[in-house]
Specification:
single chain, 410 residues, alpha+beta, eleven-stranded antiparallel beta sheet, three-stranded antiparallel beta sheet
């Protein structure tokens, strides 16, 4: 081998070694990058898991209720019960007597009858299934329970608890018994005397009451908010001309919507007036263009249609210039009911599709929507919204004609 060959060979070997070194360094860099990316991925997973864990947690609490209302099939039964009950949500730290539970899994729901000095129902283990800024939904699950026949698996998914908040304060707890289509609302009723108002500075009396209702709701005082809303309604009925000069439509609509969450009416005529005027004001507020709508306008409109569907049968019939026959044995009445049910479902689904915040603000209404929407999933959303708005307009136009003539016989 000559000198040149030797030198040239050494040069090639050097280049080969340098290339191997570059490859080694590059491989180490790739491994370091992969380690970094994996660490970042694990950190993201932990962060997401922590966020999910926070979402699935609730601060344990004790809620003292001085009145409750039972609903069966969305209709109030037996009237408002003014008695003491305690609703508590306790973290499951050591399980619960009568159940085989994993410590730390979910919560124990307790409802105590303060008047009788004993539990109102057996303790129910539940987990958080949904959480928003204004509500938390808990639901039972399958557990092993001690029965007269020994330990057996039972499914507590038929039980649920919805906890509602206003301004960070619990305003009501709703115990659901889904298999019976029944729920009980546990509330607090304020004993503070209500203020009296009068029209001033060009503001009508009903608007002054609506303002007080909104202030009470903002302070978490549901009872006073509903009572002031009722005063606003009674003021309108006593002096209908006020409706011709309402300055803050949203405020009055929201006050009446809040009022309809309670159970304040006993006879059909009062219910029809309240439903008609509330729905009219909510539609009037929603119809205002070029503004950001308060989502509760849609929440209350959805809710009033759902809870008072019997009234809407009559409103639809009257808007068509006919009368509704509730006789279940009348073939024409049955046909009308089926048609009007379809109309109302379109109205509710249309509102939910346009304003999905409804489900986040009130998970119970979200569940109702999901049940209805399952039947119409193949129908384009645009078509549902269009039909829903059409039926809203039909009833609203009828109510406008009645209100313009100051006639509240809906």
């Amino acid at each position: 081998m000559g000198l040149l060959d030797f030198l040239f060979g050494n040069s090639k070997e050097k280049e080969r070694q340098e290339e191997l070194e570059r490859q080694r360094i590059a491989a180490e860099a790739r491994k370091a990058q992969q380690r970094k990316e994996e660490q970042e991925r694990q950190a993201r997973i932990k962060k997401e898991q922590a966020a999910r864990a926070r979402m699935m947690t609730i601060e344990p609490f004790v809620f003292k209720s001085n009145c409750h209302q039972r609903y069966e099939g969305a209709y109030p039964k037996m009237g408002l019960q003014e008695c003491l009950r305690t609703v508590s949500v306790v973290k499951n730290t050591n399980g619960c007597s009568g159940y085989q539970l994993q410590p730390g899994d979910g919560y124990i729901i307790k409802i105590f009858n303060d008047d009788a000095g004993k539990p109102n129902m057996a303790d129910k283990p539940m987990r958080v299934v949904r959480k928003t800024d204004t509500s938390v939904e808990l639901r039972g699950y399958k557990v092993n329970a001690l029965t007269p026949f020994g330990w057996q698996e039972i499914d507590l998914a038929d039980y649920g608890l919805l906890v509602h908040y206003e301004n960070g304060k619990i305003c009501k707890c709703v115990l659901h018994m889904y298999d019976r289509n029944t729920f009980i609302e546990y509330r607090t009723q304020s004993n503070d005397p209500l203020k009296s108002v009068s029209s001033n500075n060009g503001t009508s009396e009903c608007e002054e009451y609506a303002k007080l209702a909104r202030e009470a709701a903002a302070n978490g005082n549901t009872s006073s908010a509903q009572q002031y809303g009722l005063k606003a309604l009674n003021s309108i009925i006593a002096n209908p001309s006020q409706l011709k000069c309402i300055a803050n439509v949203d405020s009055l609509a929201l006050a009446l919507g809040k009022m309809m969450e309670g159970d304040h009416f006993r006879d059909n005529d009062s219910i029809k007036r309240a439903v008609g005027l509330t729905y009219y004001m909510l539609c009037k507020a929603i119809a205002q263009t070029n503004k950001q709508h308060d989502p509760y306008l849609f929440v209350y409109r959805f809710s009033v249609i759902w809870e008072y569907n019997q009234v809407f049968y009559h409103l639809f019939a009257h808007s068509e210039g006919t009368s509704y026959n509730p006789n279940p044995y009348d073939i024409f009445g049955q046909s009308s009911t089926a048609v009007y049910d379809h109309h109302m479902q379109g109205m509710q689904m249309g509102d939910m599709l346009q304003e999905p915040r409804i489900a986040r603000l009130d998970p119970a209404l979200g569940n109702i929507f999901n049940q209805m929407y399952a039947q119409y999933r193949t129908t384009p959303s645009e078509q549902i919204i269009s039909l829903g708005n059409k039926y809203h307009k039909q009833v609203y136009d009828y109510l406008c004609r009645k209100v313009d003539s100051l006639d509240f016989d809906f």
